Amino acid sequence: MAKTILKRTKERAGRTRSRLARVAKGRPRLSVHRSAKNISVQIIDDRESKTLASASTLEKDFRDGTGKGSDTAAATAVGKLIAERALKAGVEQVIFDRGGYIYHGRVKALAEAAREGGLKF
Fold this sequence. Notes:
single chain; 4 strands; 4 helices; globular; alpha+beta; 4-stranded mixed sheet; Nucleotidyltransferase, domain 5
């Protein structure tokens, strides 16, 4: 029987996270969640199970400035915002967790904007 798209995505996410856990060396994880209409990102400290910083296209101040939350321009803006918030929280180096998403389009735009904003990964 054919696997559903959701099941394949969860399997990819599990493989990605298990690999990241081996190479993290104590660095926080920059976790991306992408939906059809929005994109959100969190910086998570897995040792303490705490979210250090987050940004999303669903935030009130973000929604006032741009129209859509589902394009690469919105992902770029969220990437810059998370980099700014991470540096404010004292986080400079992270591990990029793309989840089950392919490193292309909005996920790639978010990652590049976060790098330009000062995060190292």
